[in-house]
Specification:
Order of helices and strands: EEEEEEEE
Shape: globular
Structural class: mainly beta
């Protein structure tokens, strides 16, 4: 299964989170979430990161008990989804020693 469309951008980090997603950190600084059928469900790009070296997810449950629903800010068709993208906030480190905290609510959704 090819998870990268461009062979120039290799995978540096490959992990699962919440027994729900396969998370991929690439050499181009992109982070993508796949379901276990290898379908992209969310991605974090345009972050101006270099090669992803590490991804670490929060283990602390938010006050509302579930990981924050990234769709909570959206209306209309987004509410029709059966299984919205959900994940905890996470920290990413890249090869330039940049450390970034990412909120699940900044994701880009694929309809």
């Amino acid at each position: 299964m090819t998870l990268n469309q461009n062979p120039e951008h290799g995978i540096n980090v490959l992990m699962t989170v919440d027994d729900k997603y396969l998370v991929v950190g690439n050499t181009n600084g992109f982070i993508r979430f796949y379901d276990f059928d290898f379908k992209v469900v969310s991605w974090f790009e345009d972050l101006k990161l270099n090669t992803i070296k590490s991804i670490s997810f929060s283990k602390t449950k938010p006050i509302y008990a579930d990981p924050k629903n990234a769709d909570s800010e959206y209306d209309g068709a987004q509410k029709d989804k059966q299984d919205p993208f959900r994940c905890s906030d996470f920290i990413v480190a890249d090869s330039n020693a940049m450390i970034v905290q990412l909120k699940a609510t900044i994701f880009e959704d694929i309809d």
